[in-house]
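cron nightly-structures :: item 1 of 1
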Amino acid sequence: MPLKVRLKISLIILIFIAIIATTFILSIMIYPVFILISVVLLITGLYLLYVYYPKFDPSGYSIYKLRGKGRCIALTFDDGPDPVTTPEILDILKTYSINAAFFCVGERAERYPEIIKRIREDGHILGNHGYSHTKLHNKSLRFIRDEIEKSERVLNPLTEINGCKLFRTPHGFKSLRLVRDLKKRNYILVGWTRGIWDTDGSDANTLLKRAEAYLRDGVIYLLHDGRDIVGSGTNTVEFLRKFIPILYNRGYRIITITDTIEKKR
């Protein structure tokens, strides 16, 4: 999701917090009914934060960081497969013997089954990203189920870790309805620690600066390999060619999210 959109969401949440604080003060000074209003606003604000901010999940169901793995990071890719970008990314990863996670869109996988096959054969994690890349947080249960099941049929077999499949919601938006259904289907919800906004057309050097600015132990990076959805993937490919040597030079290991999921279970 573009940085401008996330900034707008953050601003809305801050406004909610300001309203809640003001209402609470008024409730003490004027009338108890404001206590009820402040509670409703607080619950609404927290739920909006839960829906739109991938790292906010009080239940602990979502994974957005590598836990207890030391000086390491993980690479994840959304919105593919793409006939040009994805093979180039796979080539780079193979050169360095790196395994990553690919959260693929079902309708794209139907068009390029040979790329899905290669993702599996190269030892990468294959996760579900919905069938049409439609935001699911505000959809009916029937629509949610159709998106999950249609994509699952195309991508089958998905990677399973301790019997659990992996799902990443389009744009990172989630809802209680969606999460309940995913749990019933034995999915784990995978978020991310940091996105570098490789969907906004920035050049590889700009992407590199963003990634380096948030380089920490345990970061799960969000990248994209689906050109038809996010625009040209050339900059993402060039970014990877520059970023991977930097990681190694600084003593980082590049691992998958597998160990974190096994520990979580």
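cron nightly-structures :: done
The longest helix spans residues 3-29.
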